[in-house]
Amino acid sequence: METSGFSVCGRFYGNSHSPKSYYHRRFPAWLGRHARRQDSQWCMEFADALMSHKLSGTPSCVSCPVPFSAPDKGSACQDRQHHSGGESHTCPRDHESRSGPALSGHPSLQKLDAAQRGCQPDMGEIWKSRGGPIRVTRERVMSPVFLSDGSERTTGPGRVGTRVATCPPVRVSPIRADHCYSLQGSREETLAPPRSPSMAHHALDGGDIPAFVQPTVGSAVAQRPGVTGRRGDLSRSPGPCFVGLAPERLNLSSMGLPDNVIDTIQSARAISTRNAYDGKWRAFEEWCVNAGCIALQSPVPVILTFLQSLLDKGLAFSTIKVYLAAISACHIGFGDKTAGQHPLICSFMKGARRLRPVSKSLVAPWDLTTVLNALSHPPFEPLHQVDLKWLSIKTALLLALASAKRVSDIHALSVSTSCMQFIRGGSKVLLKPNPAFMPKVFNPTLSCLPIELSALSPLSDAEERQQLHALCPVRALRVYVDKTASFRGTEQLFVSWAPPHRGKPLTKQRLSHWIVEAITVAYESSGLHPPAGLRAHSTRGMATSWAMFRGTSVEEICAAASWATPHTFASVEIIRLGNSFFIDWDRKMYYPKSDTPAQARTTTLNEELGQIKYIFSDKTGTLTQNIMTFNKCSINGKNYGELFDFSGQRVEITEKTERVDFSWNKLADPKFIFHDHSLVETVREGSVEAQGFFRLLALCHTVMPEEKTPVRNPEGKTTLYCKGADTIIYERLHPNCRKLMEVTTQHLNEYAGDGLRTLVLAYKDLDEDYMEDWRRRHHEASVSMEGREERLDELYEEIEKDLMLLGASAVEDKLQDGVPQTIEQLAKADIKIWVLTGDKQGVCSGEDLRLELLRVACMCQTVICCRVTPLQKAQVVQLVKKYKQAVTLAIGDGANDVSMIKAAHIGVGISGQEGMQAVLSSDFSFAQFRYLQRLLLVHGRWSYLRMCKFLQYFFYKNFTFTFVHFWYAFFSGFSAQTVYDEWFITIYNLVYTALPVLGLSLFDQDVNDRWSFQYPQLYVPGQLNFYFSKKIFVRCMLHSCYSSLVLFFVPWASMVDTVRDDGKDIADYQSFALLAQTCLLMIVNFQLCLDTHYWTAVNQFFVWGSLSAYFAISFTMYSNGMFLIFTSAFPFIGTARNSLNQPNVWLTVLLTTLLCILPVVAIRFILLQLSPTVNDKHRRSGYAFSHSQGYGDLVTSKWVLLKRKNRPPLFARAPDSAVAQNQPQHYRTIAEENEEPQSP
Questions:
Q1: What gap in Å lies between CA 464 and CA 135, rounded to an integer?
Q2: Could you say which of 213, 245, 268 is where a domain stops?
Q3: Cα 1215 from chain centre
Q4: Which residues, at least 6 apart from 1191, have a Cβ–Cβ distance to it below 8 Å?
Q5: For residue 363, is it within any domain?
Q6: What are 721's strand-pairing partners?
Q7: Residue 578 placed within a domain
Q8: Is 1067 helix (H, G, I), strand (E, B) or coil?
Q9: Spans of biased composition, class Basic and acidic residues (predicted)?
């Protein structure tokens, strides 16, 4: 009889044909995991004993050496009974009664049996001895568990044909019966006693929620893919795995969610994350075993000691965070907090971050020359003979380096004829992404440009020609496309080359792995160790840096890499991050009722907030409160909800108007307010129409725009109730309802005029025979495979005709506080607002109609698009983006606004009554629509102004620095000699000019937020991109050119024939270099002072601190001590000491600074008088020191040096009001609402 193998301590080993070396190879791994429990020598002896036993005979149970029959005999080892050949016998632990081969005398087997004793409790006996359910938790050592049925199944490490299931031993303790769950996840009152040890499967949840596998006879064990990181899943192979990470699943289970919903929620973690958690949790488990505690319930000191050991090993802080995340995911937690939220652990991580700060290397992650040289040699060449794997990864890497595109952009490339074109005989290829691809950063001018790759031209040298030919991306791409054409099953460019997914589309993660693998193999083939931390995204920086080094223009690099502007190369992220923090910290945008602050969910769009031209807004929930209050109704032609006096005149309803008393109805909402007593009297009198009206509202209570419900009353009569918009219901009414429809239409018009939302209600009595026949046909149509939708629509149209009109309802959805004021302010800022709402289809159906709509709508300040679907909302936004070169913003609060939010340049989400879908898809979020004016008119305008000033100053200081070398070249014979000291060149942008521009870009404001609200016209220059255009860039270059002329020739003229007081000549290179760089630093700092409108202590510290640092560093570097220590590094010995003590040097610095600064001041004064800008018209020249605003009272009073005791606090809490965001605010703070408004 042929066997499938044997199992030892939960490990299943091979089959009868496996060689002996296989068992010896598997045992060392087992010994490493159980060295603390068993002796390694007797374990190996036991393997030899099992191997010496004839495995071709009947295999034996591991718990005792009694043989059991093969699977084809249908027998099983269940509980303590073993069936062999249809006979059963008792299997005691002491091995007193046995049948089969005598292995009991082997000492290794006796030791194994003794070790197993106590680890595998009798679940049936324990269950019977308990009065209630039990808790089953898994231990670390694994033991065999035998299934109760005789069916074949896949068990163990994925092998077929054995009935030995690997399962950990169990530890039993009582639990509460009301927290027990069955296999399907349904909650049960009690648990049935287990029929075999296999029922005590995996307690993956911890706490009070066990998970049991209950195999039934004739059915296989439920197989689910193993999810790494879940407790108890010690095998990566598919197996019976349930539930998941304990704290998260326990919280979700307490909410009453079923297991399949929880599994879907927990699948939000990527597979890579779960794999990372799995390895980290295993390491923590082993640590806890050595510490003598259970990992699932380990105390805080054990966790802290484990994390400290990781810190002592030198692991990075980010790696320690992954360890803690894995522990938090699997640990049962401490009370209502996870392990990672414990205060001591949080303090530990904070201290670890300070001890091991996160740093970013400024060195290239890998050497491009090494990689390119390896790509021209085996295993990547010859290209037509290499394996498809090497061809694939080489093509991917060459394409990434040649195009400088993101991995997502390369992944979207297609081989269709419209997206890939080889032109000029294969010397050039044009590549385009799939038309449905949406790039990560959308730019209308660059995203549509194709990738253009040209074949590399051969050089004169044969070796160089051969290497260049091997690195040609066009050649590699053509060969790859030709080789994959035979099995390609998709139009995507890169496909999988290995079975079983051969020819299928490649994922972005796998494409990234290809690029990283190509770099790794290139290093290994060169005999070098590949660098750690390789990323596929590094090809962008490597390609663009190398292109810039080779002389490629910045504009060409930006176009190739899909970068919008050249300032991508500048260090602007810290500026954007700082402006994002200002939005997050703004207490003027905090909504206390829901405890919701404003949130900047991105750091790359702050400056675009100051350039918005079109706002697309949803209505319900965005402009309104989304709280529907029953206000009026029309029942059988009678209007309810309005009050009339004795003369028939309408009475205005106020807070003093008498309310209807609903105390007689215990089910009435005490918060409901209604004033018309006639409606209540009609209902109490038992009016059939009124009762049917409210019965319909009670049954059709959802927010569906059109809803129908068939209802059978106690008498057996069936009635179809319908509600919906008037245009939909009126088409389905019976002709006899014409007069009632006219009266109801008048009431609907009145309700709409009052700003109420209306619905029409109707019904239809159905015959019982007809209803049964209709149900039968509906069932047939719903299960049909062809034309199902058409057949269902016909049935619905059939049953919904000839309806009888009941009436109409009107509910009130009030506007949010501050919405009218916000819309007024945005309109004054020349921002056009489009309100998109409704559900009716058919808008913008043709190209000519879309253009006509755009032409007419753009002539209006405010546009309302009624009854458009979510897809049409996005189409309207894309229409404006396509034909109007303007920055758009979309704002919404619900899932139906997500497509519109994603289609606009900037998406804003409101956390309202409809969930968080819009917030999660947005770039900025807050709680109320009125905060939008502060986001745009204050933060957006400031961010745009600061970024433009940063760019102007950045180009000015660097162009001025560089142009001096051009003038110096005429005197140095156009050699490579630099004007400045090499150390000054190194730290010029790093130290001397970095902080001042940072202070300008973070804190500057031309006017305060009060003036921004009072003069919304100040927002208009941002829409026109007035502060940084081509004209501004050219003017900046001319300004730099003039400054460099003055900066070079004035110092040169002052020193060419100058001598010191002692008669010695000072016109040497070192003295001139020191004088030139001193003048340069003075000029750029004073120019920054002229550009600063708002001075703070930080600005002062950065400006004067940088100048002080320059002189301190100069005297230090040019000192005798530095020259003696580093002779070759600091050759300018004594230059600062000997030059800066001469009066003519300081006079030259003063003259150069005045010649550069005075023309700027003069030109600005002339432009202010002749052609003032919008800001100049509305901003006073003495803004910061005027008598009526700012610090004017301090300047003119004697209390200038004294502390004001009655000054309001910096962050004064003020109640939220309807127009709080439109009230003036002092420019020194962001929350001083208690201050009295002052006129500017």
A1: 72
A2: 268
A3: 33
A4: 1184, 1185
A5: no
A6: 709, 763
A7: no
A8: coil
A9: 79-98
- The CATH number of residue 317's host domain is 1.10.150.130
Are 868 and 845 in contact by the 8 Å Cβ rule? The answer is no
User: With b meaning 16 or more CB within 10 Å and e meaning fewer, what string describes 1103-1116?
Assistant: beebeeebeebbee
In this structure, what token pair is assigned to residue 647?
Answer: 């003369």
DSSP code per residue over 1102-1151? HHHHHHHHHHHHHHHHTSHHHHHHSTTT---TTHHHHHTT-HHHHHHHHH
* Domain enclosing residue 478, as ranges: 368-569
More confident residue, 485 or 115: 485
Report d(CA 748, CA 769) in Å as an integer.
36
The catalytic residues are 618
Same domain, 373 and 487: yes
pLDDT for position 1046 = 93
**Residue 551, pLDDT score:** 55
Structure tokens at 993: 């000019």
Tell me whether residue 361 is in a domain.
no
Q: Do 529 and 592 have their domain in common?
A: no
Contact 673, 659 (CB under 8 A): yes
Same domain, 857 and 742: no
Give the type of residue at 33: R
φ and ψ of 963, to 5 deg:
-65, -25
Convert the pLDDT of each residue in 809-833 to its tens digit: 888 877 788 888 888 888 888 888 8
Burial of 844 (0-12, 13-18, 19+ CB in 10 A): middle
Q: What CA–CA distance (Å, rounded) separates 1037 from 1035?
A: 5
Q: Is residue 192 part of a domain?
A: yes
Q: How confident is the model at residue 438 (pLDDT cuts 50, 70, 90)?
A: low
Q: What is the CATH number of the domain that holds 655?
A: 3.40.1110
CA 321 to chain centroid, in Å, comes to: 18
The strand pair at 832-837 and 612-617 is best described as parallel
Judge residue 978's burial from the number of C-beta atoms within 10 Å of its C-beta, 0-12 exposed, 13-18 middle, 19 or more buried. Answer: middle
856 vs 863: CA distance, rounded Å: 10
C-alpha 414/C-alpha 87 separation (Å) is 66
DSSP notation for 682-725:
HHHTT-HHHHHHHHHHHHS-S--SSEEEEEE-TTS-EEEEEEE-
Q: What is the tally of structural domains in the chain?
A: 8
Helix axes 1030-1055, 1143-1170, angle to 10 degrees: 150
One domain, residues 46 and 193:
no
Domain boundary among 117, 143, 162: 117
Q: Which residues are CB-contacts of 817 (< 8 A; sequence separation ≥ 6)? A: 928, 930, 1217, 1218, 1219
Torsion sign over Cα 123, 129, 132, 138: negative
Token pair 């994959």 in the structure block, residue: 484
Mean pLDDT of the 479-507 span = 88
Are 833 and 884 in a shared domain?
A: yes
CA distance 73 to 1226: 89
Residues 46-80 have pLDDT tens digits of 444 444 443 333 333 433 433 333 333 333 333 33
Q: Which phi and psi (to 5°) does residue 646 adopt?
A: -65, -25
Spell out a b/e string for 754-772, using b for 16 or more CB atoms within 10 Å of the CB, else e: eebebbbbbbbebeeeeee
Over residues 345-404, the pLDDT tens digits come to: 988 988 888 777 655 444 456 878 788 888 888 889 888 888 899 999 999 998 888 888
pLDDT reading at 1126 higher than 50 = yes
* Closest residue by Cα to residue 949 from 841, 1093, 839, 1086: 1093
For residue 36, what pLDDT band results from cuts at 50, 70 and 90? very low
- The answer on 136 and 60 residing in a single domain is no
> Which of 1207, 1184, 1212, 1209 lies closest to 1004 in space, CA to CA?
1184
Q: What is the pTM of this model?
A: 0.52
Distance of alpha carbon 1081 from alpha carbon 1076, whole angstroms: 9
1046 & 1170 share domain: yes
Q: Are residues 215 and 284 in the same domain?
A: no
Rounded CA-CA distance 747/753 in Å is 10
